[in-house]
Design a protein that fits this description.
The protein is α/β, with parallel strands linked by helices. It has eleven helices and eleven strands.
Amino acid sequence: MRLGVIDVGSNTVHLLVVDAHAGAHPLPAYSHKIELRLSEYVEDDGRISTVGADRLVEFVHECLVIAEDRGVEDLLAFATSAIREAPNGEAVLARVRDETATDLQVLSGEDEARLTFLAVRRWFGWSSGHLVVVDIGGGSLELAAGLDEEPDAAISLPLGAGRLTRDHLPDDPPSTEAVRALRTSIRADIARSLRQLTRTGVPHRAVGTSKTMRSLARTLGAAPSGEGPYVPRVLELKALTDLVPRLAAMTHAERAELPGVSASRAPQLLAGALVAEASMDLLELDRLEICPWALREGVILRRLDWITGD
């Protein structure tokens, strides 16, 4: 069957259409996205602005038309931290529902971690043994670990690259003091949750997902996306540690000149690198293998499981 997923994230709103059936992996058929950046339409009290809600409703309408044109039989829609944490999140959801007849399901941070873990497990398979997964989004960091398709530990921390950039690194380039303070804060936040992950055992395979991870790996020499999803890509801790001070010294425009970094993502690359470095260092991971599947694919896979009764 042809499935569609509307993913409302902190940075991007993305419609992914896939062809899928039991016993086969979902094949991407069409992709349509906009860098809405809901996290930037947040007012001083944390509420999503009217303009942000207007743009979200408009894009959901656009996605529905495209989904119909592309023959989508089953359409799922979900939202993550940008709406989950907004004081008026329920009102924004109600407006989307009333004006588009689309019921956006808000995932908890733990659900994000669990579904991303499922996608990584299905991508790499059972031979990977004990997995640990690091997923850096725009609004939050998800960490998960375990032996099965359901992780033994799944946590979410408010350490998204976009959020940290907005709240802690407003200058271009940032001051040395601001970078140092953010680095210290990130490490303290991760360290407080570390035991939940480490008590599950030593991982046989460590994996990173998300656009931030892919951009960092590409900047450090990984194959471009045009070479396809099956080319192995890795992020090495030593190379990342060397990269961080270079990123800190660059302007946003200079970062946008790096391989795999768009102008819109360049401002938050440093914060993402600090989170990735801290996660890898504290979890004692020398390298992360980059997985092309993440939360969207996890949502699709879980839906397929439900449809087929698995």
